[in-house]
Amino acid sequence: MTRGKQKIEAQKKNAEKNQKSKGSQFEHRAVALKVTCSICKAQLANQNQLNDHYSAKHPKEKPPSNSE
User: Which PANTHER family does this one have (predicted)?
Assistant: First the structure.
């Protein structure tokens, strides 16, 4: 077991290590969401979700092609 200054330094080091590894959910979300609806600007993960979104939210409009 460590005592005194070693213990405090070890606790600080562990706290920094644990803090850095968490990251932000907003950063991960921005990376995952790549497709955007041109009408309402909703962000979706892939083309299939975009097609489902158009059929549910914008039934009168046609979804854009896969080439975007």
Answer: GEO09665P1-RELATED, ZINC FINGER PROTEIN 706
Q: How far apart are the C-alpha atoms of 54 and 65, rounded to whole Å?
A: 12
**How far, in Å, CA of 32 to CA of 67, rounded?**
18
- The H or E element that residue 44 is part of is strand 43-44
Stated pTM of the model:
0.55
Q: Which amino acid is at 43?
A: Q
Residue whose entry in the numeric block shows the structure tokens 């892939």:
46
pLDDT score for 68: 47
Domain boundaries, the chain: 22-63
Cα 66 to Cα 68: distance, rounded to the nearest angstrom:
6
